[in-house]
Write a structure and sequence with these properties.
single chain, alpha/beta, five-stranded parallel beta sheet, binds flavin mononucleotide
Amino acid sequence: MEQDRELLITKTISGTGIVYELTLHREDFSACYPGMQRYVVEAAAQGQEPARFITNTYEYSPLLPGSAESAARQVFAVWEVGLITDPAAIFREYASRPHPAMPEEVDLLILQGSPRPDGNCAILSEWALEAAREAGRTSRVIYPHDLDIHPCIGCYQCYNMGTCVYRDDMDEIIAAVRGARLIIACSPVYSNTVPAGLKLVIDRMQAYHAERALGGEGRPGLKALMYSVAGRRGRENFTCVTKVLAAFFHTIGAVPAGEVLIDSADSIRDIRTIKGEEEAVKAQVKRHLRG
Ligand SMILES: Cc1cc2nc3c(=O)[nH]c(=O)nc-3n(C[C@H](O)[C@H](O)[C@H](O)COP(=O)(O)O)c2cc1C
């Protein structure tokens, strides 16, 4: 993502014999979110990975005192002294993290949102997996309910370094999304929306959005399909689920490529009894995995 970068302060510090360039930049991220500004304090010395402190305006919620700019200016002032008295401490804590490596690529990644391993969403997922196998493609299923995923706390710190502040199973899920070619989000309708486990994953994908906004790239041409099963009768039962999943696809930069929405599951009980459904699902998956 393109952003304007403005130099606010620069100082050369050479107290310990090593020459450090200490800078404070303001970066305009309003292309990402309205009015978002990042403040980057950087200490650089020849032959050394720079130390960076980054903060952005979205971190400062209405009741929080201070601002991103005042926090960054404060860090600048502290580093100005620290680079003379104990530069190693600054570099130990703030040396830049390397960008995450591209994981092993997988052709089809399924996020199986139903906590029931033997329900109708599981059947849909199995059909898609079979189609991938038949097409000679690799696949993987993720079951959010079995994983350790902390809820997103809306701290917006992911827009500083491109990663979440929490280290849990989301790291692996994001790595899988990064390497996927086709994603299927498969969700039962729970209280008109997606179940809690899948919602955790969707909200925490903000970190992947941040990663991409900061220049990270996933596998090119990522496509996504939405599958959903509702107990009640009628298309209106998918109004919210389809919006939530569309937002998810937007967040991860996937192109929506189709949907399978099956209602009346409470009376149908087993979607394998719907004539032609399995064939239609498999044909759709194979079409998107071709080439
Ligand atoms: C907690 C809960 C909430 C549900 N809420 C809805 C709902 O709002 N609308 C609806 O059509 N079905 C609702 N259902 C029914 C499920 O969508 C339906 O049983 C679906 O087939 C479950 O998928 P599964 O077999 O893959 O688990 C709900 C089921 C549960 C357990």
